[in-house]
Amino acid sequence: MFKKTIIALALCMTAVSVNADAPRQSPWNYTAATNYALQWALSRNPNYVNFSNDCTNFASQALRTGGWKDTVTVNSTQASSWFYKSSTNYAQTWSTANGLKNRFVNGYELGVEKLGKSFLGTGPEYLNNKIRTGDIILADWESDGRFDHTMVVTQVSFSSTLVSYHSQDYKNEPMSSISSRYPNATFYVYHIT
Known about the structure:
Layout: H1 2-19, E1 24-25, H2 30-40, H3 55-66, E2 84-86, E3 89-90, H4 92-95, H5 97-105, E4 109-110, E5 112-115, E6 136-140, E7 149-156, E8 161-165, E9 170-174, H6 175-181, E10 186-192
Parallel strand pairs: 1-4
Antiparallel strand pairs: 2-3, 5-10, 6-7, 6-10, 7-8, 8-9
Helix pairs in contact: 2-3
């Protein structure tokens, strides 16, 4: 009897952990994410809704193409879930820059590393030597703590990082141009592994 109770308890605990929101590691293919971003940077994929502020929706599509899996359970919250089912059924983390940032910050996705300043802590984060294509850059235009914009890194060299994004659609725009247009902006760079 005791052995049957332990087995039943173990099965119950396994079922709960499968359905619990917990950090997970998705398989990641940065080439697929980058190619998707380059393909759809200047147009819209008809399989997804088109938002007036479409930048995070676009980046989420690239993340999904790169291997991220939808995360939603009975106990999911807006911060812990990340999914897109239809034009009327998607997570806030899928569609808003601040929501995606909160998902990264709260550790709901393992394999996401926030990169710091480059050049011994003095240069911009977007020139960090660990950045690669498929990574995500978030922008807080007013540096007020609420992130406003999401971009996908689509080309990297020693001296330049190029990004692609929606809303005002751009393909391979230099981060140096963006940062000069928004000198007071804060940028968070997330390296995806």
